[in-house]
Amino acid sequence: MLGATPEAYDPDLMIVELNDEQLALRTVVHDFCEAEIAPHAEAWDRDHTFPADTVRAMGELGLFGIPFPEAYGGGGADLTTLCVALEELAKYDQSMAMTVEAGVGLGANPIFHFGTEEQRQQWLPDLCAGRTLGGFGLTEPDAGSDAGGTRTRAVLDEAAGEWVINGEKAFITNSGTELTSIVTITAVTGEAGGGRPEISAIVVPAGTPGFDVARPYRKMGWHASDTHGLAFTDCRVPEANLLGARGKGFAQFLAILDEGRVAIAAVALGVIECCLAECQRYANERMAFGRPIGANQAVAFKVADMAVMAECARGLVYGAARLRDAGRPFKKEAAIAKLYATEAAVTATREATQVFGGYGYIDETLVSRQYRDAKILEIGEGTSEIQRLVISRELGLPVT
Amino acid sequence: MNIVVCVKQIPDPAEPGALDPNTKTLKRDGKLILDESDSYGVEMALQLADAAGGGEVTLVSMAPNSETSGLRTALAMGAAKSVLVSDPALSGTDALGTAKILAAAIKRVEGADLILTATESSDGYTGTVPEQIAELLGLPSITFAKSIAIDGGTVKVQRQTEAGYDECEAPLPAVVSVTAGVVEPRYPSFKGIMAAKSKPVDEVDCAALGIDPGSVGWAGGGQEIVTVEAAPAREAGEVVEDDGTGFEKIVAFLDNLKVI
């Protein structure tokens, strides 16, 4: 009655077991976070500092190159390995996790997937080494989840062999740091027929005249992650900076979105694990009415729920990553992982803040920062609503 | 410049350790990690080889159960290869036995110009192995290096003392033990981790080193652990009320300690 077992649920792929190199990487990232991130994350958050030197050090660890071939200076590994690093970083600081996630998924990944060999050679080695950072400009002030509503235009000046770009982008991660080398943007380059816009992707090097980076946003969280609005005014870049096929800019972006969703889910997983560890400790230490607060079921059960969320998220994140690394379809699994893990992260951070009581509302408390930081996880790289839409479509529902 | 670094793989200090009630020694059957105090020697060796414009850093280690995860960490930092002495007969080996094994293993490494060690391991803590190795190899030994430089065929060392440091030098090859202040160890990079997978670990047993298994391990030990006791709790300090002569009491207290 229920039909055949879906092929995606191969039991061999459901077992999450990290190999020796992934375990070694986790240890290194853990040690790095303890020594280089944990002592400073609160000050970065307070002062809205993007710590360029720490980002360079993460580059030296090889974190920005993990899933790319060694020929471009990458680590030659896979999405699972990237998730291991992101999960560990997010336990300490979502801003640093997101700097890596966006640098890999939005900065380097489009160049790797859609760039010509020349474009790859030009930009990937520095991006993989973390010597430079890349951003991806899709969202606009009036086009978010509706990315097809892009207004930014690029007109080819055939005589000069240049694209002339005009328009605005919004909420672009890693777009205005001292390390930023490129921002790949989507722009309308013509009409695709039927009145639909032809959208293409174009690489804009930082510092190009007419490419203006607005002052950083004042954000609810992710204070140490770099986010700007961008404005393009008669901004000229070489015709050869077209990334991938003309008119395929939006389709290309959708094609690599699934990997980013799994990566964001890995960040959310680290956040949940942070809440669990912090609350386990605090519920045993903090005394009220002559006993640890963890002696109260009301507190203990919150912590128990965090453990359940962490286990569920871990299974979903690494299950989806394994499917991708095995070359199997994983669109639905990526959306499920992103949806569940990010919503669970918001729940876990809210409940962790409750466990910490008054201290949980103080900015310098780790779970407080995680709470402020976590909300955007449900919004960026596809809102929860978009994930539900993707899942519904994958289930064959006639949803629009 | 070829450098040998003696490294030890120890139980993770972050995990609660346990003593084997029969042997009264630390249980080592779980996962072992690179002793942090050895990471300084590895880093120093890498920097010296780099400064010399080439050469290899070789690790030498001893473990009863073929454990390599700690060695992989040092290989991921950049060491080229490793000699691992592993033999069930090694269980229970004391400091001198360890020095005999390591000295024999070092002899397998051709053309070693310098041998670096930590000042002591973080688990055993005898602090005697480096000098024993030097004696067994017939090499000069300098301890507690806070700084090392190579000048031709000479190693120049700033030797940490309680008051400052001594400047020492010795002809190469020599054995030098380094403190935690000598250099800041690097983090292994992901590429280093991947590369370490395929770096050679030459695993040898006592027979291959020409060592009689009866001369090491429990059988060859010159010492016996009779009992292990918890360290006594620190006694409470003396509280002195200041009746106007407090300064005299402080001076008398410090005088008694011979610090003033």
Keywords:
heterodimer, A: 400 residues, alpha+beta, Butyryl-Coa Dehydrogenase, subunit A, domain 1, Butyryl-CoA Dehydrogenase, subunit A, domain 2, four-stranded mixed sheet, 11 helices, B: 260 residues, nine-stranded mixed sheet, two-stranded antiparallel sheet
3D structure, described in words:
- The complex is a heterodimer of chains A (400) and B (260).
- Chain A is α+β, with helices and mostly antiparallel strands.
- Chain A has 3 domains: 6-133, Orthogonal Bundle (Butyryl-Coa Dehydrogenase, subunit A, domain 1); 135-247, Butyryl-CoA Dehydrogenase, subunit A, domain 2 (Beta Barrel); 251-394, Butyryl-CoA Dehydrogenase, subunit A, domain 3.
- Chain A is 48% helix and 17% strand.
- Chain A is built from 11 helices and 10 strands.
- Chain A has helices at 20-37, 41-47, 52-61, 79-92, 94-114, 117-129, 249-285, 297-325, 331-355, 366-374, 384-394, and strands at 133-137, 153-157, 162-173, 180-193, 196-205, 211-213, 227-238, 242-243, 287-288, 291-292.
- Chain A has a 4-stranded mixed β-sheet, covered by helices on one side.
- In chain A, helix 7 (249-285) packs parallel to helix 9, helix 7 runs antiparallel to helix 10 and helix 9 packs antiparallel against helix 11.
- Chain A is globular and about 80 Å long.
- Chain A starts with 19 loop residues before the first helix and ends in a 6-residue tail after the last helix.
- The model of chain A has no long low-confidence stretch (mean pLDDT 94).
- Chain B has 260 residues and is of the alpha/beta class.
- Helix content of chain B is 28%, strand content 23%.
- Chain B has 8 helices and 11 strands.
- Chain B has helices at residues 36-51, 69-77, 95-107, 129-137, 190-196, 206-209, 217-220, 246-256; strands spanning 3-6, 9-11, 32-34, 57-62, 81-85, 114-118, 141-151, 154-160, 165-171, 174-178, 201-204.
- Chain B is globular.
- Chains A and B meet through helix 1 of A and helix 2 and helix 5 of B.
